[in-house]
Design a protein that fits this description.
By secondary structure, chain A is of the alpha/beta class. In chain A, 34% of the residues lie in helices and 16% in strands. Chain B is an alpha/beta fold. Chain B is 49% helix and 20% strand. Chain B contains eight helices and six strands. In chain B, α3 packs parallel to α5. Chain B is globular. The two termini of chain B are 13 Å apart. At the A-B interface, α3, α5 and α8 of A face α2, β2, α3 and α5 of B.
């Protein structure tokens, strides 16, 4: 399964969403399908795309947020999965392209050769980790049809969802993107000022429930 | 526990006064009341982090979505978050209000806090992050307002260091 085919399958559904991608191949390929102002490409800070998505999801609970992540990035912020799960924003879909390699930072090579693999190549199961972190739903898919169904189900569901797509470690045709990082940074919040239309808006907008306040027992500090 | 409830309330009120609606945090002794206040406030979204760097991303997302936010952390939390501060806030020019409890200074009794405190200001300076100390309760509200104003106008991270004299009431 190719990442680009997966992106092409969901591209029409992203119109109303806030989309946050990681750097490298994912950003370049989504861009190649046609840039939109509601796409933000996080070109650095590997691991934080899902955190950026969480901040958007909490501040705009009426908008669908789609984070398009990768195995290398997710593995740099596994704790972030637990933060997502406990915050449980019902408007966030976490797509993870798992090519089992750190392709975009130099771990891949033409022809799909993987010389710097990630731990998903030796058995780390990101959907399993997401479920164990407390995600209400997470799924691994290996065929394009399955990806499309899982992604559309996730977008339609009123629940935090994770879809792990096992894809080839293929370089994008080009890494070139004719939108400057800062241009992208300023157009994105402007796009988020527009209220989402009904097409992909949450059907039942819900205020994100706070966790139950905890009673802090008397703590003894070593300073005392 | 002699963490000042009254001054924690002053800090909390000042934070709300500058429009903060989302707080991300990891606890440390001096922050327990501030975090509890955020937790008990139905108008505040509290995100309990696993590691501080996440908070930088969350604050960036909140900014994109039109919300003001703050991060509550300790010296080592700040040191932990540096890659995010550089790779998100500074690189993308995103306002970020960091409230850092400043452990490890004069009066510190916990030996394990004594290194992190030494490097906080030099690292903030190295990153050209504007910072100021919160020492007296009467300074909190104006300094918070000025810090938020600069963060928003310069599209940069700013830091307020919560001092021992503000946060800790020595038993008499």
């Amino acid at each position: 399964m190719k990442r680009l085919d997966c992106l092409r399958a969901v591209y029409p559904e992203l119109e109303d969403c806030a989309v946050v991608t990681i750097m490298g191949a994912v950003a370049a390929e989504l861009y190649s399908l046609g840039h939109r102002a509601n796409f933000f490409y996080l070109e650095h800070a590997m691991g934080l795309a899902s955190s950026v998505g969480l901040g958007i999801a909490l501040a705009q609970p009426e908008r669908k947020v789609v984070v398009i992540d990768g195995d290398g990035s997710v593995l740099m912020n596994l704790g972030g999965l637990t933060t997502l799960a406990r915050s449980r924003p019902k408007n966030l879909v976490h797509v993870i392209f798992d090519n089992e390699t750190l392709l975009s930072v130099g771990g891949g090579a033409p022809g799909g050769y993987k010389w710097f693999t990630t731990a998903t190549s030796t058995g780390a199961d990101l959907a399993g980790i997401a479920m164990a972190a407390g995600f209400p739903q997470a799924k691994t898919v290996r065929e394009l049809g399955d990806f499309e169904r899982a992604a559309l189900d996730a977008l339609d569901s009123n629940e935090l969802s994770c879809v792990v797509a096992k894809v080839e470690a293929e370089m994008p045709k080009s890494f070139l993107m004719d939108v400057h990082m800062l241009e992208n940074r300023f157009e994105f919040p402007r796009a988020l000022q527009q209220p989402p239309s009904n097409q992909r808006a949450l059907r039942r907008p819900t205020r994100i429930a706070k966790e139950q306040p905890t009673t802090i027992p008397a703590m003894k500090s070593l300073e005392e | 526990m002699p963490v000042s409830v009254a001054n924690s309330q002053v800090v909390y009120d000042a934070m709300k006064g500058v429009g903060v609606t989302l707080v991300s945090a990891l606890p440390e002794t001096w922050l327990v009341h501030l975090i509890r206040m955020a937790d008990e406030d139905p108008q505040m979204t509290l995100v309990r982090l696993a590691k501080e760097e996440e908070g930088v991303g969350i604050s960036a997302g909140a900014h994109f979505a039109g919300a003001r936010s703050a991060m509550l952390m300790q010296n080592h939390g700040f040191l932990q978050a540096i890659n995010g501060i550089v790779g998100v806030s500074l690189l993308y020019k995103i306002p970020l209000l960091m409230l850092i409890t400043d452990r490890g200074g004069f009066g510190e009794k916990d030996p394990w806090q004594t290194e992190g405190g030494k490097y906080t200001r030099p690292v903030l300076d190295a990153l050209h992050v504007a910072h100021d100390d919160l020492t007296r309760p009467e300074d909190v509200e104006p300094k918070m307002a000025k810090a938020m104003t600069l963060a928003q106008s310069s599209l940069s991270p700013v830091a307020l260091l919560l001092n021992r004299d503000l946060m800790w009431e020595e038993p008499r």
